[in-house]
Amino acid sequence: IAGITQAPTSQILAAGRRMTLRCTQDMRHNAMYWYRQDLGLGLRLIHYSNTAGTTGKGEVPDGYSVSRANTDDFPLTLASAVPSQTSVYFCASSDSAGGGLGEQFFGPGTRLTVL
Amino acid sequence: GQNIDQPTEMTATEGAIVQINCTYQTSGFNGLFWYQQHAGEAPTFLSYNVLDGLEEKGRFSSFLSRSKGYSYLLLKELQMKDSASYLCAVEDSNYQLIWGAGTKLIIKP
Q1: Which of A86, A100, B24, B60 is most open to solvent, judged by the fewest CB atoms within 10 Å of its CB?
Q2: pLDDT of residue B94
């Protein structure tokens, strides 16, 4: 692994189903983030984690949950998917040890369609 | 509320210079970022400004005026590969990034 990876690349999901988007980084960054990107809107932060064992809510957390059991992995779960969660989801990480967010490195994204 | 404004779309000619503006109103300010995003790909970091003035990096430069809540990204000697969306983002007082919707730059031969 080099950098940050996400799985799956794309997914079509029936409404009401549970889905976990996976994110793994090998850069030993302490901070990780989940964003969604919709046409005409900026990236919106769903959840974040400043360090392993801690998580926080972003701008649009409803309907999503995250965990950060270790430094490398930061999965995002949709407990019961709804059509409004159709979006492209990006995971990102940064080394914020020096204070501030620092440059964020993004995964390739997961394109999710909820029908 | 917090707001980042950028033009939706701009068109420029190969070899020319283009300036993409960004204005912001946020709860606090800890720095401004520019990212490039090619269609269907992830954003990649271009520049970071925290102090007023111009930061130059090759063909790309970024300017910041904190008193005016204003930044611009200057791209020189445009190449076809510069066709992409350019995203402006501000780090607020909660150390979260607030993102603009992006400016789609179209380069014509």
Answers
A1: A100
A2: 82
For B54-81, the DSSP string reads: EEEETTEEEEEETTTTEEEEEE-S--GG
Mean pLDDT of A44-66: 95
Q: Which residue in the set A41, A103, A106 is minimally distant from B42, CB to CB? A: A106
Tell me: the pLDDT tens digits for A3-22? 999 999 999 999 999 999 99
Q: Who among B42, B45, B97 is closest to A108 (CB)?
A: B42
Query: Does the pLDDT at position A35 exceed 90?
Result: yes
Structure tokens at A69: 């059991």
Q: Which residue has the tokens 């031969």?
A: B109
pLDDT cut 90: percent of chain B above it: 90
Amino acid at B103: T
| Joined tokens for residue B84 | 């992409």
The answer on pLDDT for B98 being more than 80 is yes
CA distance A23 to chain B (A): 14
**Residue showing tokens 């090998």:** A26
Structure letter (DSSP) for residue A83: G
A42–B99 CB contact, under 8 Å: yes
Peptide bond into B109 cis (omega under 30): no
